[in-house]
Amino acid sequence: MKSKIIAIIITILFISCQKQIQEPISINGVWESIGSGWVLQIQDSTQYTLYDVTDISCLPNRQASLEEIRSSLSLQKDTLSLQKGVMTYRFTRATEIPTHCTIPISTTQKQDVLYNFEVFAQTVKEHYVFMELNQIDWPELYQQQKEKILNNPTDPQLYKTIEETLELLGDNHAYLEATDAVYEALEALEEEQEEPSAEEALVEYGDFQIANMVADTYLTEDMTKDSWLIKWGTMENNVGYMQVKAMWLYAALDIPQALIDEVGYVDAYVTTFHTMNEGTYIQKEVAGIAKTMDQIMNDLKDTQAMIIDVRFNGGGQDAVSFEILKRFNDQRRQTVKTKLKHNNGFSPELPLFMDTSPTAYKKPVYVLTSQQTGSAAEAFAISSMSIPYHKRIGAHTQGALSTALEKTLPNGWSFSISNEIYMDVHGNSYENRGVPVDYKLDYPKDRQDFFRYIAHNLTVDKQQVLEAMKALEVN
Q1: What is the dihedral of CA 83, 85, 88, 91, to 10 degrees?
Q2: pLDDT single digits (tens) 353-366
Q3: Which residues have C-beta within 8 Å of that of residue 3, sequence separation ≥ 6?
Q4: Nearest 5°: CA angle at 224, between 322 and 396?
Q5: Category of 366 on φ-ψ map: left (φ > 0), alpha (ψ -120 to 50) or beta
Q6: Nearest-CA neighbor of 203 among 451, 475, 462, 457?
Q7: CA-to-CA separations, 57 to 43, 103, 157, in angstroms, rounded
Q8: CA 245 – CA 212 distance, rounded (Å)
Q9: C-alpha distances out from residue 315 to 264, 379, 397, Å
Q10: How far is CA 312 from CA 210, 245, 439, in A?
Q11: What count of Cα atoms within 13 Å lies in the side-chain half-sphere of residue 334?
Q12: What is the C-alpha to C-alpha distance for residues 128 and 174, in angstroms, rounded to an integer?
């Protein structure tokens, strides 16, 4: 009798285990991000809605088929991960969608100037990560800026107040984008400009313009093919030179020609990728740069050393930086780690790893940086610190390493703030101070002063870099 009871219990346990195996945990439901202020709602395993949420607002960010992000999702225990480029965003399950996500916002409220300011301010309060670093008294600053809205509740005043607030926060990665109507109104309010001073009358250079001048000076053999974003070739003594002007604009997006004719290529590019899921867009950027890098590495594989010039590179996508740098990395390495502002503390640290390629370039590499090297180009610089045969020459970078958290106001304006601490493998953050170099060159800090200095001393600049390479080689 006892053995029969034991057999029944074993059978029940076996059936129970089988049932658990056959019923995996579903990703359907409501998920709250750890940092970033997102709520992700997945319905029937077919549709998803992403909301931008603060304590006082809930705005739909994107609604689409789940197939759009399914390959970027992974579920482990009670944590759902969403991959976007090199970043992984984590979500925990919520019992229900926040109440204010179920209440429609009226057209009047969407356009209410004070309400838009309050949503902006609440986003800053919840997510801006450098209050302490930049010594910001947020309650005082918030009240000071709110008074300006109360005294003049107009769209132009709202724009000027938000723009000024971002400047006062000292956020190196912030931006604000309104509508054409607002820009026209702001222009109409501007007073007549004064006569340009002697300084204003000086020649001004664009970053691509000065970059081309430098590449033309450095290269003895230009091997560039089918690219306006990267120039490459060889210098004297079989030294390879690769100049990367941007860490974006590589994706094949099928931009309508009519849109390009109307607003220009870059604006048309931005308009087009904003219609896409961000993760899909980043994948296209990586595919584009990978194709170009295949050609470059084939052309320069037999050089004895390599210069990678990102001095005039203002950034783009970290995933593009990682795709370039992995061609020079001989083993998979942790290069950086990040954490997001979350509640009154931070999310768990997320390590980022640099992949390698089967034919990695393992000879000396010299990365040229300046204070105009920003954002994703700084991710390139900080990641190069983990590779032993890579050295940096020039000036420290801009100090804008945090990923920009992009949000939309109720009135449709877009803005971003920094919500991330971006660190090297030892936990050092270079926000504001920039990624350091191994050999310092005396570059002017001001953008145009730096560009003019380079433009007027192209040959000297090249010689200084070559001398720095020689000094580092000896060391």
Answers
A1: -50
A2: 999 998 999 999 99
A3: none
A4: 45
A5: beta
A6: 451
A7: 22, 10, 22
A8: 9
A9: 20, 9, 11
A10: 8, 6, 18
A11: 11
A12: 10
d(CA 64, CA 41): 11
Is residue 388 within 8 A of residue 363, CB to CB? The reply is no
- Match 């999310």 to its residue by tokens: 347
Cα 64–179–420 angle (5° rounding)?
60
- Rounded to 5 degrees, what are φ and ψ at 354? -100, 120
Q: Do residues 225 and 295 touch, judged by C-beta distance below 8 A? A: yes
Between helices 113-127 and 138-151, what is the axis angle to 10°? 170
Q: DSSP per residue over 405-455, as a string?
A: EEEE-TTS-EEEEE-EEEEETTS-B-TTT----SEE----SSHHHHHHHHH
Q: What is the CB neighbour count within 10 angstroms for residue 352?
A: 20
| Residue with tokens 């346990």, as numbered in its chain | 13
- The C-alpha atoms of residue 235 and residue 303 are separated, in whole angstroms, by 10
Residue with token string 């759009």: 68
The residue type at 257? Q
Residue with tokens 């996500």: 101
Q: Scanning the structure block, which residue is given the tokens 């997102």? A: 38
DSSP label at residue 152: -
How far are the Cα atoms of 71, 311, 474 from residue 303, in angstroms, in the given order? Answer: 39, 22, 19
In this structure, are residues 171 and 417 in contact, taking their beta carbons and an 8 Å threshold? yes
Measure the CA–CA gap between 372 and 255, rounded to whole angstroms: 29
CA-CA-CA-CA torsion for 253, 257, 262, 266, nearest 10 degrees? 30
pTM above 0.85, yes or no: yes
Residue pLDDT tens, the chain, 475 long: 545 555 554 555 555 555 444 445 789 999 999 999 999 999 999 999 999 999 999 999 999 999 999 999 999 988 999 999 999 999 999 999 999 999 999 999 999 999 999 999 999 999 999 999 999 999 999 999 999 999 999 999 999 999 999 999 999 999 999 999 999 999 888 764 455 555 556 889 999 999 999 999 999 999 999 999 999 999 999 999 999 999 999 999 999 999 999 999 999 999 999 999 999 999 999 999 999 999 999 999 999 999 999 999 999 999 999 999 999 999 999 999 999 999 999 999 999 999 999 899 999 999 999 999 999 999 999 999 999 999 999 999 999 999 899 999 999 999 999 999 999 999 999 999 999 999 999 999 999 999 999 999 999 999 999 999 999 986 6
